[in-house]
Every structure is written in C-alpha cells, then in structure tokens.
Design a protein that fits this description.
Chain lengths: 344, 344, 344, 344
C-alpha cells in the first residue's frame, strides 16, 4: 500500500515521515513541499539522513504516482481545501491534518478563520478523526479530518462525561499548556528561543480557533449546544500538551461514577491510558508516543472535578493520530506502526 | 539600620541577600545557616563572590548583634514558629517568610500543614504582608507574615474585584504555573533536571497548602467565606509564576467596570502594572523584578472574565515583597532597593 | 532468547527496557533493583504503563530464571565487579555497562576510581564493546565491557585516524558537552533544575575517569601510548553528547585523506553517519537513536583538523550500544531493535 | 550628561537601556529604531513598561538633541560605518558596539566580513574598548570600538599570559559555548525554539569573524603574530558565554606562575573575578552582571593549561562593557551603574 504526504517539511509532516517509515504495512511513495521541492528530504530534516532516501517533489497532483491510494494533507489551514476536492475526485482516500474539514458549519470558518469555505459540501462527508469516538465511522472512510492538537487533549478528557450527559456545561474551563512545536516550524519572533525560553504566557484568550472544534464535538456527544472557555498557554518545551479541565458534574457526581464512565468509554482504546489513582499525567511520559494519559481528582471543597490529559502534540495531537486513522481506514491493526514506548 | 537573615542559603534567602546588598538604607549584618555555618557566603552562592563578604553563622539567636533591629526569617515552614517568639521578646521587628504566621485560624495549620501551632496568640498580631491591601497596617508593624508565592499572584489578580464585592465565588478557578525554583533549593527527584525539563504537570490538585491562605484573604476582602479551586502546575523554567484566574462577575459585569476597579484599587501601587489592552502578562517581563503584571480578557461567549498575573516567585513572590514590607515597616520609600528593571 | 537487566531503574536501565521491549528477537524476563524491588516497573518509570508488565525483583542472582542466557549489568561502578564473576560461572553471557571491565590495567582502577579491582583476571577476557572497532571479537563474546558515553563519542571521532597512524597525539584536545542525564538518575544539588538550567560549566578538567579509557583504546588502535586532554562540560539539555576534537595530522594531512580514511573505516557500520560536507552534527539529530553523526572541518589557518561527533548518551552512549553488542554476540542483525529514526 | 542609543531595539540596545536607566550619572535622552520608530519603547520591550517612558525615533542624526554628548551605536555590522563619521564630525563621543571599528587592518573587513571599509582612516583612531587592557587610552577617548562577545571572553582568559609572553601560540585552542541571545533578536530558523532547545552544535568552525579580532589583540599584547583556532558552539540557554581555552606555556610553566600573572594583570580590575582554587566558572554565576569569572587547571598529564572564562554575553560581552567604557571616557567611577549582583 503506497501513501503520500503533501506538505512534508513542517513538524507534522516530518513526524508523519518518521511514523510511516517504520510502519510495517505502507510505503511512503511521494512527499511534496512548495519551498523545498527538489531537495533530498534529509537536507531539510537531517535526522533522516541515510534512513529516508526520498526527495521532495513540487506540490503538483499529477506528480503523485497512480499507485498511491491514500494521501496525508499536511498543508497550512486554508490551503488543504484547495487541493482535497481534486484528490477525492481522483479516487484517493484523504487524511487532512489542517482545520479545513473539521467543522460542520461553514459559517464557523468565517467567524473563526476569516475566510469562506470553498467546498462546504465536503464538510458533511468528512469524518472527524478522533478514533476513540468515531472508530466505526473511520473504517473505510474516504475523507478524514484529523483533529487539532488542543481539541484532542481536551476532548479525550471530556468525552466520557459528555457522552454520559453528566456535565454541567456552564462550569467547564479548559486550561491548556502547549510546547512550542505546536506553533509550527516557521521562525517567528514569539518563538525565537530567547523570547520563549524561561517564560510562560497565555494567549488568544477566548478567541482561539480550536474552541468551536471542541464545542462542536462535545455538543454532538452530549446532544446539545456547548459553549465553554478554552485558554491556551505557551510553555518552554518542544513537545507536549497538558490540558487541565475544570468542571462540575450534574448532581455532584462521585469518584466511582467518574472511574466507571472513563473505564467503560475507553474499553479497548489502545492509546488512552487511565492512570493508577496515585499518579497524574505529565507530558514527559507520553513524549514521542501516540498515548493520551488521563488522570483526575475530585476537589470536594469546591465541588469540582479536575481532569488532566497529556499528549504529545505532534503524535496523538497530529501525525500519530493520522496514522491511527489510516490504520482504521485501511483495516490495519489500530496500533500498527505506533507501538513505540514513550521516549523519556 | 542593621538587619539579619535567618536561613540565608535557600533561594529566598539568597534573593534577600541580593536585594538587601543593593538597598541604600540598610546594612545586612548577620546571616545564618544550620548546615553551612562557618562558610563564607560566596562558597554556597558563588554569584556573590567579592560582592558579599559575610560568613554564615549558626542559627543561635544570641549571636545576632544587638544593633540588628529587623530580622528576616527565611526558615522552613514549622521552624519559624519556634524562633519568632523569642525574637519578638528581644524587641526585634520580624518579617517571616514561612507560612507560620499567615493563617489566622490555628486549626488550619492542623488541617493543611499537619501540625499544631505553638504560638497561636501571635496569629492575631501578625500583619499579612501584601502591601497592596495592607499598606497602612504595615507601617510600624512588629511581625509581618510575608505571603506565599502562589497567594501573591492569585490575590493581586482578584483583590480589586473581591474588595468591590462583585465576584461570583462559586465560579472561581485559579490555574497557576510555576517555575522550579518555587520548590526550593533542596535537590529532590521531581526537580532533577532530566525529570522536569521538557515537561509540564499538575500537582496537589485540591489540597495545596496555599489554598486556605488565598481563601482567608479573599474572604476578608469580600466580607464573606470563600471556597475555591487552586491548582498549581510545574513548568520547566527557573523563575516565575503565571496565574490564570477564571471567574464570573455578579450581574455579568463589563470591561469598563473591571478596568475602573483595577485602576482605582492599584492607584499608587508602585509594583503593580496594569498592562495596556493589547498585551498580556508573560513571566519573562517581570524576571528579577518586584513587579506584578496584570491583564485580563472578557470571554463574552462563556460569560467569563479571565485574569492573568505574572510575578517572579522569588522577588514579588518572596524576597522582594519582604523588602517592600521592610520599607513600609521602617518608613523608607516603598520602592527603596527595588527599582531594578526586569532582566530579560 | 531470554535476557535480564540488573539495575533496571537508572536511566541506562530504563533505556535498555525501552529498546529490548521493541526488539524482535529477545524477551526481557527479569529486571532487578535494590531500592524498588517489589514494585511494578511502571511505578518507577510511568512511561512504560501498560507497555511493560514486569515487576522489579531483588538483585539476587538465584532469582534469575535459568532460561536467561544473557544479562545486562547496569549497576553502579564498583558494584558490577562484585556480581559478574558469579554470572559468568553460571554460564551466562554478560554485557556490563559500568566501567568495571573497560580498562585492561588493574592499576588504572586504583589511580582513577580509587579502588582495587577484585577480579583482575577478567580484564583480559572482557571485550571492549565498541562494535565499530571490535565487531569480530564481539561475535560470541562472553563478557563485554560496554564503553562509557564520553569515550564512545570521542573514540568514534578519532578511531579512523588513530588506526591509520596519522595523528600528532601531542596536539589532541577533546572538548565534550553533555546533557544532564549523563549524570544519572540520582537527584543531587548540581543537577537540580534551577542549578543547571540556563548555564554551562566545565568540570573535572584533567581528571575525569573516562580519560584512561579513551587513551587505552586509542593506544591500541595506534600501536603506541596516547596521553591527551579530555574536558567535559555540562549543558542544559536532557540527552546528547557533542564532542569537539582538535588535532593536527602528521605531515599536515588533506581533506581528501581524511574523507577517505573515515569512509573506509566506517564502511558497513550501520550507525555511523558521515554527514554531507555542508552539514555538521547536532545532538538533536540523533536523539533517541543509536546513530553517531560525524563531521569535520580543516582549519587551514591554524593547521588543525576539527572533528565533531554527536551521540545520544543514553543510546549509542549506553543502552543502544549494549543492544548492538548483544546483537553481535548472539548473531542477530547488528541493527535489530535499533532502527528507530531519531526523534526530533 | 545626556546620551543616546542608535539601534535600541535589539538585545544589545535593550540591555543598554536597562543599564543606562539605572546609571546615576547619565540621562538617556534619545533612542532610535529603523523599524519601530514612533512606538513607545515598552511596546517593543514590555519589561520596561512604566519604567522607561521614551518613544523610539527614526535614525536621523538631525533628530538627536544637541545636548547629547555621547552616543552608543548598536547598529548591525556594516551600518555603523555609515553613521559614525558624521557623529564624530558633529563633535559627539561614540561607543560603537558593532564590529566596524574593531580591526586595525582594513583588509580584514574584506577577508572576514566581505565588504570594503568606507572609513579606514578611523580604524587607527578607534580605541579597542576592553578596559582591562586599555584603561588609560579609554579615558577621554572619542571613538571606542566595543569588543565582540566571544573576543571579550577569550581575551580576558588569555591577556595576562599573552602580555607576559609565555604562551606557546601554536598550542592554543579556544572552544566557546554561547547562549542563543548572542545570535540577536531577529527570528531565524536556527534559533526557533524547537530547533535549538535540547541540542548543542558547533558552527562556523575556522571561519568565524571574531577570529581576527581575537588574534589582533593577542598579537598586540604579545608583540607578534598570533594565529589560532576559535570554535563557537550554540547551547540551549538565553544568556552566557563559557570559553574553554587550551594552551601550553613556553617552558611548561607552573601553577604559581599562572596565579601570579593573573593576579598582577587584573589587580584593580573591578569586574574580573579570579575564582578561589576550588571553583570553576559557570555562566549562571555572572548572569545579568558585568563580571567575568576566571578559573584554570593545570593538566599535568598532557602538559596543558586549561583556562575557563564566563561572561554574560549581553553585559560584559556587549552593553555592560559599553557602559564601563563610557564611565572611563567620561571620568565616572568604572563601576558606576554596574554594581548589580548577578541574578541567579
């Protein structure tokens, strides 16, 4: 089975190359880049020297070998939508890692991204690629919208309770802490080493574009409309997202109820680890892996449940999840190519 | 005016030495250490080589020169209470940087610290050393309880709204992110470089000992009982605390109301900086200084106010605040010795 | 094929667990720890939760299952020598990751480590486990002394030139920069996060215990006595060693000669990557992998050759090299279990 | 006394603002920026909010107030030479922080910087602003060339031995490790946080432009021609340069001789700290200060002397040294405005 990556030089793209390179069932046959076409891949990402022999191609669809059956689109937001329709017309399966097919309501793209969606008819066809809630729909899917990094961490923390209908939505606060690779590979002043080492900040309070994505999925799971506050923070580390979710349960809830709901919901989910009671997630324990670690505490004094999730933003938050989706789409074992233990 | 430091080798102690060394009105005449007595100070803290010539003395009160009028206690929690009564009896003014005199209710020491307070009669006499709310009481005070690092950041974010009585207390969530120096100078596995670099975690969810301190002061300001959730996180940097505070205002509130309340409350406070509307606090912008930067956003969708504060945990969160308190106790300018611009 | 690890809780031990867990030809059947015996392994190293089900055993040799044929000793220096003779007597193959069998001359243990070697007769039998120079001797070896992390980086930079007899040994300076994990997992003041983040230092100038190990092997390769200066530096990162080696070639040398000698020497060495001329090694490009990247520049003005090598100190500098040695000892492919691409 | 800064928004410029703001004898009356003219300074550097009220002006010389007597040029290399002649013609004293007036031989600008010097006649007039070797010439100087960051660390390590004529120059190797702020404030891919955190690399081996500057001054001190190897390395920290200098002394030398030469040479130098024998420099101990810490070890086995120096590249390596030069030029105490203890 041959696959391709459009936009292979960003962090998401290079992480896809890393994971697909060691996947036993697929062959990476084509990688493209607008800016680095013609260059051996290792020139851009020297870690792959002598491991990956491919050269980068221009992003011209006619150059993709016919034998390629599935394509990962790791293009910037707003660029995927220009390309994906043609790929689908050509009979390819597509996993899109941008935001372009994640939202069902085209109006949300105008509100949160500032542009009009050019292929709104595809929004209904796209399957939201969070396997833990959409495993069945992903089998054989043609177009998969790979979730955002923040939504992955937030949704896995909330999905079991949302699906059970026990969340007091007005109480929900999501405070996320991300490593700097989440900002992408383009050098910008805010991510210049001396500007973000040894510092923490909040940003885009109340208007981060991942908010409607989180709300949409939680609304679908709970069967209602969800409006919540999501606040991202930048932390001086390369990889990882820790999401701290504060909420009250309807009727107050009990620790036993929470443990039961999480246990049942993630039964058989190979990458979600419900930590033993004495532990809490730390991003270092999932680094380089597709795991999402989950832990929680009841704060009896304030009546709140505090849930913490940890992911590697480039793996479970992007490329690893895309490979997990590919496995489900193509009928491979869900864990295929993703069995690496986290790298301490 | 001569002053002394008991417990001068920890991070709080060394920061006191740094600030007092450049204070124009006082002379540091005595420093003590249980473990390093007899050693020149620069042996323990080489940054002071050729700047500070003092040697560490044993922590025996009879060794303190008579001319010393004010003493900083930077001893571990639970050890100050053994020493402070004798210092007061000897006629010294005391600024205690431990938690031992911060709580008014002796029972809270049993609940949160696990020991019975040996001098409960002093709890009423101690002035809580947050100058922005207690400036008058600090003038001439004899025993000052210097606030905890987390309470300083959280209280400065909430005090104006608490004092105005406009907070819906059931809605308040405080999510704090601290650098590793907050854990002190003792090497422990959790703070071993390879264990905390490149990672973020939450800890002590719902049971951190700074919670009752925050609640006590907010209760006093608002004239009621406050119970809230405070969750600290460890971030891979040396200095800094960023506190993100989520709340709803009674009646909803308006941005103008918030701006007015903050402006009035911090009128004349030299170290609180209300940032221009387009900026949000980042810990790097207060590093090494006694500043507390404050910013906020109304999240109209969720009806929440999100307030962010940034401090250097060792300065405004400990030693700098202690010097600020000393200035007020002794009648110096509040800014004396604390005018350094943050070190980028 | 069953294998065991004595001393599985340190960084070298946990890295062995990670690599052996994904090795297709061996089963990790026994892990021991003096301090954590009885605990599930994931309690000590939570990254292995749900991946590694083993519990830690006491370090009693009689507890090792008979079916175990090869044992990794990852015990502290000086403790291996107490254990290895009995393991050999029991017919096990041993890869020792301490320094206890690396030096041929027992007197060097007294000079550099400060203790008298208890089993000097084994020093002759031990094969120095740097596969790039000892590949044949490792096949079927019974006792392998796994090289130190610094010697690995330094020797791979110098071996081709030493073997060719072209080095002016009086000119050689080795300046190495290591991440903090090289200091081990025990929390100590010098490796407390606030003490080593944001700083660089040199240490043990002229008396680091890896010096005689480097000199011994270079002496064997060059057929003479080698005395050189090796200076390690501590750098604020978790993993990685960059070694910068300065030397003059006898007769001056040429770039072409150097390229030819390196190319020939590392012909067929799967983990040594001779970088393209326009690149130089960076530790991030080998992170998590068994690669050693090599690059060099002729400084014509000073007549020096400057060689740079980069390794992951825990992989090629310790556990990965041990697995590579195991592969050779047992007749597996040299790359078996070690094909992970570096993790950016 | 009024002073001005041309190019105030880079790291060197903002460090000048920080130091001049707290200097008791001068008033910063004018700051310019090509890109940010018109903006309040705190918009670009928020740490100065409410401390520095100046706004940035366009870099037009006619805008500089007449009362300004001394001007710091913190412009990029190659731009200072276009401006300085006019400043001198206008009767201003100038401290230039670029490389444009550091080299005496105009030909070196063509060789190492790639451009022809437009004002070669000024190269003779410029005083090299390393006060420890040029204190007298700096008194009343009109044009001072402030040294580069690497040359400062390297020269202070070597100057006493060079001046004594005891160095075997063919043996000298300088291996320097710098924090990322040395690369300036412009965001570029190599200094993007995820690209340089958790990694070390060497760069510009044998062709770094600071090499001729080091060689020129050492040649002047020793009365001969010096050619040596200087190799910089990038380390994941914000501030600091550690220079490790390897050399042999003519005739071998003794520790006592070295101690005596250093002691005599730096007699009365307020910012050079010769560390006690049991300590070695670490960059954290000079952070934020104008100190240069020096330590050394004789490696008797290899016959080498290894000298280590530590500076803060933005202070003693740039802005602090410029203020020190200003103090000497204007007749202030050499330490004026520079007495801050290092910030741990």
């Amino acid at each position: 089975m041959k696959v391709a990556i459009l936009g292979a030089t960003g962090y998401t793209g290079s992480e896809l190359v890393r994971l697909l390179h060691q996947h036993p069932g697929v062959e990476l046959a084509f990688i493209s880049s607008r800016g680095d076409a013609g260059s051996p891949y290792y020139r851009v990402h020297p870690q792959f020297y002598q491991a990956v022999g491919l050269a980068l191609q221009p992003p011209a669809l006619e150059l993709i070998p016919d034998a390629v059956e599935l394509i990962f689109c790791a293009l910037p937001h707003g660029r995927s939508v220009e390309v994906v329709p043609a790929l689908l017309d050509a009979g390819k399966q597509v996993i899109d890692l941008s935001a372009d097919f994640r939202l069902r309501d085209p109006g949300l793209y105008e509100d949160w991204y500032g542009w009009t969606h050019a292929a709104p008819e595809l929004l209904e066809r796209a399957v939201y690629g969070l396997p833990e809630i959409n495993r069945e729909a992903l089998s054989g899917a043609v177009l998969v919208a790979n979730p955002g990094c923040f939504p992955t961490g937030a949704l896995l923390a909330l999905a079991p309770l949302a699906a059970a209908g026990v969340v007091d939505w007005a109480s929900v606060v999501i405070d996320a802490k991300t490593g700097v690779s989440g900002a992408g590979r383009t050098a910008r002043p805010a991510f210049h080493f001396p500007e973000c080492a040894e510092s923490v900040k909040a940003y885009r309070i109340g208007d981060h574009q991942h908010t409607p994505e989180i709300e949409q999925i939680l609304g679908e799971l709970s069967g209602g409309t969800v409006t919540l506050n999501f606040t991202p923070h930048l932390v001086p580390m390369i990889r990882g997202i820790l999401s701290t979710v504060y909420l009250r349960l309807q009727g107050g809830g009990t620790p036993e109820q929470v443990a039961r709901l999480f246990g049942e919901f993630y039964e058989g989910a190979p990458f979600v680890r419900l930590l033993p009671a004495e532990q809490l997630p730390e991003t270092r324990y999932v680094r380089g892996s597709n795991c999402c670690d989950l832990g929680w505490r009841f704060d009896r004094r304030s009546g709140r449940l505090v849930i913490v999730s940890a992911i590697d933003n480039l793996v479970k938050g992007a490329a690893g999840q895309a490979v997990q989706n590919m496995n489900l789409m193509l009928g491979y074992s869900e864990e295929s190519g993703l069995t690496q233990v986290p790298l301490f």
